[in-house]
Design a protein that fits this description.
alpha/beta; nine-stranded mixed beta sheet; 11 strands; binds beta-D-ribofuranose; binds calcium ion
Length: about 325
C-alpha cells in the first residue's frame, strides 16, 4: 500500500479529497499536515481534526504547519469567500476534541521521509510552504520523499485568483518555486486539468439521496462552494473538483496523462504566482535558469468521468 501524507488547508474540496483518500483501499494515509490557504493555519488544523472525527479516524496524526509564508510574510490572503469563514461552508461545527501532535509539519515530513525512504507520497492540496520548510530543514528531503503530487498552477490557461495565478501557488510562490525545482519526484496537477472535473447539481442531488456518511456531510458544506462557483464562473450549477482529482492522481496515476519538463514560478510583479512550463527542447539555447533545473511531471489530460465516478463512489 502506498503511504501518503496529506498537506491541506480545508477547505471544502480539501474535505472531499480527504474523505476520498480515507475511503481508498489503495493508499494508507499515515498523517496530515496543515497550512494556510483557504483559511489560516490554526483553523486548517481545527478543520482537519474535525474531519478526522467525522470520519472516525482520529488515529491518524495531524501536524500543524507554518503560520507564515516561506519568506516569513504574514500577509496571507485566505479564501473565505470560496469556502465560508470557517472553511467548511459556514456550518459552525463544534470544535474538535483532538489536538495536533507536538511536532511541526516540516519536522513530521522530514521524520516520515527518513523512516520510510522513497516510500512516502506527499499529496499537497494547499500552498507549498511546509514542503519548502522540510527541504530547508533537511536538504536530503527531495531524494528521500517518494513523490510529491501537488495541486498547483495553471499550465497555459488562466489562473483562478487573477489571470496569471492559481490560488495555492500565489499564496506562496517562493515556496512553490523552491519545491518544484528541488529535484524531488513531482507531479503537478493544475487548473488546466481540474477545470475539466466538474460536479453538477445533479451529482450533488445523487449525493444527497445516498445515505453514506461522507455524502451527507459533504452535501451540507457544498452549498457555499456551489454559490461561489455560481457567482464567479460562467458555467452555472457546477463546481470544480481540484483537490479530489489530485488525491486520485496519487491513488491511481493512470487516470491522468502527463508531460515532463522544467517548471518555474514567477515570484514577483503582476504575474506573481504564474507557473511556466518549459519542455526542455534545445530551441532556447543556453537558458540556464531553465535548463539547469530538474524536470517535473505536469498533468495534461484527465479521465474526468472516471474521476467523478470514483469521487461519488468513495
Ligand atoms: C486550490 O485552492 C483552494 O481553494 C482549493 O482548495 C484548491 O486546493 C484551487 O486553486
Ligand atoms: Ca486545498
Amino acid at each position: 500500500k502506498k503511504k501518503i501524507i496529506i498537506d491541506t488547508d480545508p477547505g471544502i474540496d480539501d474535505a472531499m479529497a480527504i474523505f476520498v483518500a480515507l475511503n481508498s483501499p489503495e493508499v494508507d494515509v499515515i498523517g496530515f499536515t496543515t497550512i494556510f490557504g483557504n483559511v489560516y493555519t490554526t483553523l486548517a488544523t481545527r478543520n482537519t481534526l474535525h474531519l478526522l472525527e467525522v470520519a472516525g479516524r482520529t488515529d491518524i496524526p495531524v501536524a500543524e504547519g507554518s503560520l507564515v509564508t516561506f519568506t516569513k510574510s504574514t500577509k496571507l490572503h485566505v479564501a473565505d469567500f470560496v469556502h465560508g469563514a470557517d472553511g467548511l461552508g459556514n456550518q459552525n461545527f463544534p470544535p474538535p476534541k483532538g489536538k495536533a501532535i507536538e511536532q511541526s509539519a516540516a519536522s513530521f515530513l522530514v521524520e516520515q521521509a527518513n523512516l520510510h525512504p522513497g516510500e512516502v507520497t506527499v499529496v499537497a492540496l494547499g500552498p507549498l510552504t511546509n514542503i519548502a520548510l522540510a527541504i530547508e530543514l533537511d536538504p536530503g528531503f527531495p531524494e528521500k520523499i517518494g513523490q510529491i503530487v501537488l495541486l498547483g498552477g495553471a499550465f497555459a490557461v488562466n489562473g483562478n485568483v487573477n489571470p496569471a495565478a492559481e490560488a495555492n501557488i500565489l499564496s506562496d510562490p517562493d515556496a512553490a518555486d523552491l519545491v518544484i525545482t528541488s529535484g524531488a519526484d513531482i507531479v503537478a496537477v493544475g487548473l488546466n486539468v481540474t477545470h475539466q472535473v466538474i460536479m453538477t447539481d445533479a451529482d450533488r442531488d445523487k449525493l444527497a439521496q445516498s445515505n453514506g456518511k461522507f455524502a451527507q456531510y459533504l452535501c451540507k458544506i457544498l452549498e457555499v462552494y456551489y454559490s461561489y462557483h455560481q457567482e464567479s464562473y460562467r458555467t452555472k450549477g457546477c463546481v470544480y473538483l481540484h483537490d479530489p482529482t489530485t488525491i486520485l492522481a496519487a491513488v491511481d496515476p493512470s487516470l491522468l496523462t502527463y508531460t515532463e519538463g522544467v517548471v518555474r514560478v514567477q515570484t514577483n510583479g503582476i504575474t506573481r504566482g504564474l507557473t511556466i512550463f518549459y519542455n526542455t527542447m534545445k530551441r532556447f539555447g543556453e537558458v540556464t535558469e531553465w535548463s539547469d533545473k530538474p524536470t517535473v511531471k505536469v498533468a495534461v489530460t484527465v479521465d474526468a468521468p472516471a474521476v467523478l465516478e470514483l469521487v461519488m463512489e468513495r
